[in-house]
Every structure is written in C-alpha cells, then in structure tokens.
Specification:
Helices cover 26% and strands 26% of the residues. It contains three helices and seven strands, in the order ββαββααβββ. The chain has helices at residues 17-25, 49-57, 67-76; strands at 3-8, 11-16, 38-42, 45-47, 80-83, 86-87, 93-94. A hairpin with a 2-residue loop joins β1 and β2. 27% of the residues are buried.
C-alpha cells in the first residue's frame, strides 16, 4: 500500500492511495473549488490539491500545507499532477504541453 505522511498543525497525518480514491469516489465528493495553478487528476476529475487534501482528511484546516506540498504528496502516491492549469472557452481544463505530467521527483519528464 502506497502511503505518505504529512505534518498538519503539528500532527502526523498519513494518507494512502486508497484513501484518496475512496474520498474522491464518494457519492457526494466533487471539487469545491476550481483548480487555479496546480491540479491533481483523479479519474476524469481535476482537483485543486488543497481541496482534495481537505476532502481526504476530512478537515478544512490544513495549517502550513500549501498547494505545492499537497501536490507533492499526491504525486508520491502515484497520481498525475499538473501545474499552471488554464481553461478553454468551454470551461474545460487545458494543460499546456510544457506544463504536463510531472515525475515523482517533481520534475517534468
């Protein structure tokens, strides 16, 4: 089982790939905010990293966890992460080829 531990408000919080998939697949789960600069792809849905992390841990207070740190956690868990998310005129996410899939080390391939 792939896991990653974050320190949120002084407490160690471990998330798993399975917990992310379960949280994102819950009947009432959907992004609360539209991704701006960073995105995490879960199935066919693009989530803002902090919004997805809040959904997974069930807590709105992420303390000092910023979007790049949340994105790194999801990347380590094996999810596709993107930077510089922009939208087409139809409101669909578009990721410029220079800003596509990041490797697990955080660099672009």
């Amino acid at each position: 089982m792939t896991t990653h531990t974050l320190t949120i408000n002084g407490e160690k919080v471990t998330i798993t790939q399975e917990s992310v998939l379960l949280a994102a697949a819950a009947a009432d789960a959907r992004p609360n905010v539209r991704p701006q600069r960073h995105g995490v792809l879960i199935g066919a849905v693009l989530w803002a990293p902090k919004d997805l992390l809040r959904t997974v841990i069930g807590n709105d207070d992420l303390g000092n966890v910023d979007s790049p740190r949340a994105m790194k956690a999801f990347n380590i868990l094996g999810f596709q992460t993107f930077t510089e998310t922009v939208y087409t005129a139809d409101g669909l996410p578009f990721v410029h080829p220079e800003n596509q899939l990041r490797t697990q080390e955080g660099a672009r391939p």
